Amino acid sequence: MDKREEQARRVPVWRSLQTKYAITYLVIVAAVVGLLNTYPVMVSQTLAYQSKQTALQNQASVLASALATGPEALTQESATRTVSLLLGSLGVTRVVVTDPSGLVLCDFQEGSQRSDTAGQYAMIWEIVTALRGNDVFRSEYKSGALLSRAAVPVTYRSMTQGAVYLYEYDAQQGALLQGIQTNLRTISVVICLVTAAMGVVFSKALTRRIAQLLRGIHTVRQGEYSHRVTMRGGDELSRLADEFNELTGRLQTTEEVRRRFVSDASHELKTPLASIRLLTDSILQADNMDGDTAREFLIDIGDEAERLTRITEKLLTLTRLDTAREIHTAPVDVKTVVERVEHMLTPLARAAEVKLELSLQRGCVIRATEDDLYQVAFNLMENAVKYNLPGGTVTVTLERQGDQVILQVEDTGVGIPEADLPKIFDRFYRVDKARSRAAGGTGLGLSIVRDTVLQHGGTVTARRREPEGTCFEVRFSAWTEEGGEKQ
Length: 487
Ligand code: ADP
Hints:
The protein is of the alpha+beta class. The protein has 11 helices and 15 strands.
């Protein structure tokens, strides 16, 4: 692949799997960290508010009951006296006591009495609410401090005599909350940074393996079928690599078969063509060739041309079998087809002094095409005659065994050596080249038989026949009118 093509194929960083993985990773962790960040802060704030509320409201209630001593109304003096007495133990920032109309009776801030508010109406929301008979508490976290306010009514026998208001500015609690927040934030930032780094590293490791697979696919695509991808890990990606290697292996085998077939085919076609060329040259170069010799040469040219035709016809048949095509099958009576083949081969058998013996059972019907079945029977029976010896016999048996229809073609001929038996169905494979050629063979007949039989769901096998000769056996599923094809 040239550089430009490779660059065009490269996935941009922003669309790469690595970026997508890293971002997903980061988003998930950021969400979790965000949650962990807010939850403890909220909980600690609530806890701080609650403890503050209890403490401040208790203090306010204690002060209110200390003020409500009798039916007489609260005065500036009595309020100031009581507050001064309890101020030390209260420990709050501000204490305000009002009468029932909201008029400030005393106002202590940070231990000393404020004079600016005395005799004025307290315009504080908490006090107004307390005077209506309700306890109030409000707390907020502001500028690093916890600000809390509480107000309760001063009641004596359900008579509101005034209100007590406490205010506390707690910088210590605030600092504690602030500390928790700052620490959590720092930890979160560190976690996010570590996660981002880890996300990049992990996703890089993952995408590196995908990139390795992609490179493998490119290499194979360019025709290097021997290339294999090694991927450890035992995960889905290594399974993918195994599958890819398996696929490439098959591709390699198919490619090898194809190459061998093309080279064998061209070799087979070259031989008759070379003979034709030689014969025509001989005729052209001979000055005074007599008519009989010239005629002999022309007959030879005709024979070679016929051989070429035979080879190309068979090659076409094989190509047709190779391409996935729709075949329109129908029930075919095998006996009728074999009898047609016998009729066709009788002159050849007579010339070769070979006896044809048929033992055909009735009712052997299979689902196929008549032409294909004819081709199978013809090739097997023709071979049995061709590779026979004068005085020999060809026995064809057809019978039904259970769900199967079995066609056997036996001969008493030259036989096939055990070592060649597994190869005789290969294209262009011939045990005895000279004999095959002399008999007009192409080495394609048995390949056609095997491919055709397989296409119709059958099987074909060859074995040595004792004491001599060969036996070919073809099995098909029987077809019955009631049940169709039985498997
Ligand atoms: P061919 O056109 O050469 O006959 P086939 O594919 O039909 O090609 O057969 C392949 C080879 O198998 C033949 O060349 C022959 O050597 C061997 N062969 C096939 N049938 C028989 C048989 N009945 N007896 C002996 N040899 C056989």
